[in-house]
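Example 9 (inverse folding). The structure is encoded as follows.
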């Protein structure tokens, strides 16, 4: 019987070059044994071993495009979503962020050039972060234990719904306080006052102002809170922070002086720690009187600015947005734009009389807070000032 193996072994080549030339012209079965320069060689053994197969073309192309700026979530959103579908896996959250990002392009309407540019810069920054998150999600990185924390929620994640955003922010910051197995435990109290006991307590103006001051000095905190530089939106975020969240922020970012001042507020304004310096009953009466006076001042201020400073009236409008019925907000904004157009000479004053009438009749009754003042805190200021002098 003929032994095929013996026949195949008889194929000989004097050099590797001759063998390569032969293979280029003839198809050889893998496993065939030949002699090359006097040594046995198995066809197929010359293929490099252990070489990593080429990565997924779609994932590689998408990653490269996002990293070098050739693709961006605004103009290429549908294309990126399709690529994520082709790659496979659960990318529903990323796709939702891409759609939300594309729907929230900043508008220049009613804004100064500086304000508009600030929003554009912020929008670009969010786009870069989204691009990096997409690239990281589809890149060929080992799927080991996550070491990077989940990104903080942003207003754009909720389609501009500030109530949902601030609720998510408060929850996230509380969740961050919970200890993990590989991280040191975060404090559960502020100078001995348990954060749980602060639940249901409404922060005061000075509590919020303390956070605002810290955010001005600390870009990391401003980014964490989702501040954009838009007065109305930033103020709404501050208004929705609860006392426990504010206390944890001051504990993390504040100086010893900031913490001492906050401790005084927790004691004097919120009834924690030692006996308050002001009798609670008297303080409640003073708060009501001062609150009424503060509302009257705010209304007078808004009414005056309709004639003298429409831009400032817009800031007061934003400050009181939560008090204004939703069905009147859009018309109120349009009325303010009309007054601002008059101030800039773009519209005749007679064409904007409707705007003043609407703002006075439908918006003024809902103005309760001035831009920078709150007389309800005057008793606390006096108390602390006297203590400081002593």
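The amino acid assigned to each position is listed next.
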């Amino acid at each position: 019987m003929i032994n095929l193996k013996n026949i195949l072994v008889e194929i000989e080549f004097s050099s590797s070059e001759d063998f390569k030339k032969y293979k280029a012209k003839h198809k050889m079965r893998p496993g065939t044994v030949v002699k090359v320069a006097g040594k046995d060689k198995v066809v197929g053994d010359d293929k490099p071993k252990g070489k990593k197969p080429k990565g997924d073309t779609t994932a590689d192309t998408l990653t490269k495009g996002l990293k070098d700026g050739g693709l961006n979530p605004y103009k290429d959103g549908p294309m990126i979503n399709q690529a994520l579908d082709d790659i496979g896996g659960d990318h529903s959250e990323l796709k939702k962020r891409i759609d939300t990002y594309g729907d929230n392009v900043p508008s220049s309407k009613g804004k100064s050039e500086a304000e508009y540019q600030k929003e554009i810069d912020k929008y670009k920054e969010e786009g870069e972060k989204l691009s990096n998150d997409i690239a990281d999600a589809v890149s060929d990185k080992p799927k080991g234990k996550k070491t990077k924390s989940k990104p903080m929620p942003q207003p754009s994640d909720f389609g501009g719904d500030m109530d949902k955003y601030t609720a998510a922010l408060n929850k996230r910051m509380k969740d961050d306080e919970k200890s993990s197995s590989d991280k040191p435990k975060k404090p559960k109290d502020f100078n001995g006052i348990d954060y749980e006991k602060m639940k249901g307590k409404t922060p005061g103006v000075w509590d919020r102002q303390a956070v605002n001051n810290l955010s001005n000095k600390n870009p990391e905190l401003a980014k964490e809170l989702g501040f954009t530089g838009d007065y109305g939106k930033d103020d709404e975020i501050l208004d929705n922070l609860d006392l426990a969240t504010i206390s944890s922020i001051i504990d993390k970012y504040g100086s010893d002086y900031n913490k001492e001042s906050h401790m005084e507020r927790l004691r004097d304004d919120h009834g924690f720690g030692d006996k308050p310096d002001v009798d609670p009953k008297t303080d409640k009466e003073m708060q009501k009187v001062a609150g009424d006076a503060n509302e009257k001042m705010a209304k007078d201020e808004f009414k005056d600015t309709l004639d003298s400073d429409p831009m400032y009236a817009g800031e007061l409008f934003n400050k009181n947005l939560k008090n204004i019925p939703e069905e009147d907000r859009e018309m109120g904004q349009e009325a303010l734009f009309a007054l601002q157009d008059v101030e800039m000479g773009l519209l005749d004053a007679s064409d904007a009389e409707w705007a003043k009438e609407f703002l006075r009749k439908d918006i003024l009754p809902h103005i309760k807070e001035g831009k920078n003042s709150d007389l309800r805190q005057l008793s606390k200021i006096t108390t602390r000032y006297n203590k400081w002098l002593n």
